[in-house]
Specification:
With 842 residues, this protein is of the alpha/beta class. The chain has three domains: 221 residues, no CATH class; 191 residues, no CATH class; 211 residues, no CATH class. Helices cover 52% and strands 12% of the residues. It has 36 helices and 23 strands. Strand 3 and strand 4 form a beta hairpin. The longest helix is centred in the N-terminal third of the chain and has 24 residues. The chain is elongated, with a radius of gyration of 34 Å.
Length: 842
């Protein structure tokens, strides 16, 4: 694309502009002379290499009067040609001819290039005239010296949020911002002279003025870019440099033409829509803002938390070595992405560009998040194929250029505390992008983030209890600021084992280009499950998780103080003896210290009693503790399953234990995202039983009951087992061919809500739809259920699994499930009508 050009100004207008400019410079020089402190670099090299016989023009990258004043003052001090003096060249018979009224130019006349324009650069007419003069006169050459003026030190060296915000960056500042910058950083101004550029040498072999202009401009832009990179770091503000590349890409051009035909508009109008979509999506990365975020977040963490504990952070550096990185943390809080970006920056790595929902693109807030690296996406791309293609190309451009990216494979924040089933939309786009151009390795880095108290905890509980989700708003954000007066314990961050995409695909016999679309879809689904499993593998078992698992296993959420220490000790010992994964991290505190900390932080309250003090969870804390127990429920999945079998049947044989565990494992793995499979089950079962025996809690064959600590452990897995039993009971109770998959899911949710109300089956998350959807999907994957004409039929294996309920659940729970799942045809019709209405509303 040709750069835009403007016609030269009329003489009268040029004279008026010159007179006004000289007056403004004189005033500004007087104001700044005593204020600025300027360090000059490159002056000696310039004076040595300068050809005094050739005209010299100073080139500044963009229009900035304060920079011109600095240049003029230092040129006077050093005895160099003055930028405001006329530019003269040797004429005939030794005379001197003025070819320009001033010896300086601004490379680009406009301010910040607009990504909404097809050509963002408007080059200086003076540069165009000089190139034309050199091409017209074989005896003429002009030296162009790029001048770099930086106000203050690099953003990363600033120690004040205000100074960091107004430090040098890649964005071109407006007049007001530049005035503040001069006031704050004027005493630390840096001026650097670049290497002179010969216009004749650059344009001698060209026969086209536009080509000559582009060549000179590119050389100067490269000089500015390289010097700015040395001073403040690489240009990541790709909102200004990437949108043209995105819109020019072949997939987007094809989508533009298709949109123009479909919407009956011109191609230019469709392109404008594509540019607006790219503008809506793209981040506006800014080093000054990143440094301000760094300083602000340091203050915020100290204000909110008692500490941020990070584990295996060296993995971040190892994963990013020679590769593009996609950070994929769990999503529990809006703090997640701020915290991870902060920790990545603290490791000396560039913070990632974070995918954020368009609901966070609020006034003021959206702009701040963009400058911190957020790029925005709509919740759904349906109905706008042009937007979908633009977003995909934007993501592809970031991956190809090596920008680190962060997104949440769970989609939204978990309201229950469990890791949510992955949504593979962004993941699929990432994989397909890498397959288009596998130039460098691509690695996914799972990250676990755990909290001891959640800022959004109360709203999560309210939403699980039926209150509609509150939309994000600026007013809501302002209301949440009052929580800054509270303390939220410690935060734990653990980096999981990275996944190399090329190696993952190669293990499935896939390599670029992949022609088998079905195999690629299956691989992406498997990759999504691998990511969430590795997030869970990196879980941190903190004091709050231990206390939650122990106290929620009691009927009234109360326990003798000594028994609570014993229960926490059992959970801690099991987590240590039977590690869920190599990267699972366990608190170093003893059971006694864990309980003491829970009492100090208000998780439990002490009730004095003559026969021994009691500890109880306050009623308001119960749903929140369920959240923290669910964070690490997978850590005790197998021990709790074994405990559930042993509590009701102390004499059960090891063979039957393994058989029932084998039938339950697929459902536990699907809901809790366990990283191990059937091949590891038998050794793990035996190791678990051996640990029970070593800890003295394994009932003997002649036992009449299990130890109390084992009963509490069994209740850790109560809700998943009850959900599983509800699904099986509904299917077997209604008979084959009576229900669709959607109707089964909806009915189970309704029945779980009813059971939770009638029989106290735990906190609101018991009726979580995602958990029931996972169970129904797993039944299909196992082949225990198949759809015939949309209706579900089941195999004998499902009946056998349904019989396991007598081993896993207590008699009162089994009877409760049997009662609520005993439905008449009228009940079933009412339930299906209610679920259909809910789905239509959604």
């Amino acid at each position: 694309m040709e750069p835009t050009t403007d016609p030269p100004q009329p003489p009268a207008r040029a004279a008026r502009a010159s007179w006004v400019g000289r007056g403004a410079i004189a005033v500004l020089r007087g104001l700044l002379r005593r204020w600025l402190g300027v360090q000059v670099l490159g002056a000696e090299a310039l004076q040595t290499g300068l050809d005094r016989g050739r005209p010299l023009v100073w080139a500044l990258p963009f229009r900035q009067l304060s920079a011109l004043v600095v240049l003029d003052e230092q040129a006077r001090r050093l005895g160099l040609p003055l930028p405001l003096a006329p530019l003269a060249a040797a004429g005939a018979e030794g005379t001197s001819a003025v070819i320009e009224p001033h010896a300086f130019l601004y490379l680009t006349r406009s301010g910040q290039p607009s990504p909404l324009a097809s050509q963002p650069y408007a080059y200086a007419p003076r540069l165009q005239r000089l190139i034309a003069a050199v091409r017209a006169d074989a005896a003429l050459d002009v030296q162009v010296v790029p001048v770099h003026v930086f106000w203050g030190r690099a953003p990363r060296t600033q120690t004040s949020i205000l100074k960091a915000l107004f430090a040098e960056g890649w964005a071109i500042p407006g007049p007001l911002r530049q005035a503040v910058r001069v006031l704050i950083h004027g005493r630390q101004t840096l001026l650097r002279f670049g290497e002179p550029v010969s216009l004749r040498a650059l344009t001698a072999d060209t026969h086209d003025d536009a080509l000559a202009l582009r060549r000179v401009a590119r050389r100067l832009r490269d000089a500015y870019r390289q010097e700015r990179e040395r001073v403040i770091g690489p240009d990541l503000s790709h909102r200004h440099t990437l949108i043209n590349a995105v819109v020019s890409a072949a997939p987007v051009r094809a989508a533009i033409e298709a949109a123009a035909a479909e919407r009956r508009i011109t191609v230019d109008q469709a392109e404008a829509q594509a540019r607006r979509a790219a503008w809506e999506i793209a981040s506006n990365y800014s080093y000054p803002w990143i440094r301000a975020f760094d300083l602000g977040l340091q203050w915020l963490w100290n204000r909110l938390y008692d500490g941020v504990e990070s584990h295996r952070m060296q993995t971040l550096r190892e994963a990013s070595d020679g590769a593009s990185v996609v950070y994929v943390p769990c999503h529990r809080s809006h703090v997640d992405y701020l915290l991870l970006s902060y920790l990545v920056w603290q490791q000396g790595l560039p913070p990632p560009h974070v995918a954020a929902g368009a609901n966070l693109n609020l006034p003021v807030v959206g702009g701040i998040l963009r400058r911190g690296g957020a790029f925005f996406l709509r919740r759904s791309f349906r109905g706008d194929p042009l937007y979908a293609v633009v977003f995909g190309e934007y993501l592809h451009a970031m991956i190809v250029r090596g920008f680190p990216i962060e997104y949440f494979v769970e989609g939204g924040r978990s309201r229950t505390g469990r890791t949510l089933p992955p949504k593979a939309g962004l993941l699929a786009m990432t994989v397909e992008s890498w397959l288009r151009a596998p130039q460098r390795p691509l690695r996914f880095v799972p990250v676990y983030v755990g909290y001891e108290r959640l800022i959004e905890g109360e709203s999560h509980v309210a939403e699980l209890s039926g209150r509609p989700k509150q939309k994000e708003s600026l007013l809501g954000l302002l209301h949440s600021l009052r929580r800054l007066r509270e303390r939220f314990g410690r935060v734990h961050v653990n980096v999981g084992e990275p996944i190399d995409l090329e190696a993952f695909l190669a293990a499935r016999d896939l390599s670029p280009p992949v022609a088998d679309e079905a195999a690629l879809r299956a691989a992406i689904g498997a990759l999504a499950l691998r990511i969430v499993a590795r997030i869970n593998d990196a879980a941190v078992v903190a004091p709050v998780n231990l206390v939650s698992a122990a106290m929620l296993g009691t009927p009234r959420h109360a326990m003798d103080a000594g028994e609570l220490v014993a229960q926490v000790g059992l959970l801690r010992e099991l987590a240590e003896r039977l590690p869920h994964a190599v990267r699972t991290t366990l608190t170093a505190l003893s059971a006694t210290d864990v309980v003491a900390q829970a009492e100090r932080t208000g998780l439990v309250r002490r009730i004095p009693h003559p026969l021994g003090d009691l500890l109880q969870v306050p009623d308001a804390q119960v749903p929140l503790l369920a959240y923290f127990r669910n964070n690490v429920l997978h850590v005790w999945a197998l021990p709790a399953l074994m405990a559930a079998l042993l509590v009701g049947h102390p004499g059960i044989g090891r063979a039957r234990l393994s058989a029932i565990a084998g039938r339950a494992l697929p459902f536990l793995r699907a809901e809790l995202f366990l990283s191990w499979d059937e091949r590891e089950l038998e050794p793990r079962v035996q190791a678990c039983l051996d640990a029970f025996e070593a800890l003295g809690v394994l009932p003997g064959a002649a036992s009449t009951g299990a130890p109390p600590v084992l009963e509490v452990l069994a209740r850790v897995l109560r809700e998943p087992l009850q959900r599983w039993s509800i699904v099986l009971s509904v299917l077997t109770g209604r008979g084959a061919g009576r229900l669709t998959a959607d109707a089964l899911e909806d009915l189970c949710v309704l029945l779980a809500q009813r059971m939770a109300f009638l029989y106290d089956s735990g906190p609101p998350g018991f009726a979580d739809r995602a958990a029931f959807r996972s169970i129904v999907a797993t039944l299909g994957e196992l082949g225990w259920v198949r759809a015939v004409d949309g209706r579900l039929h089941f195999e004998s294996a499902l009946l056998e699994a349904a019989g396991d309920a007598q081993w896993l659940l207590s008699e009162p729970v089994r009877q409760a499930i049997e009662r609520i799942t005993r439905l008449s045809d009228a009940d079933l019709a009412a339930a299906e009508a209610a679920s259909a209405a809910t789905r239509r509303a959604a």
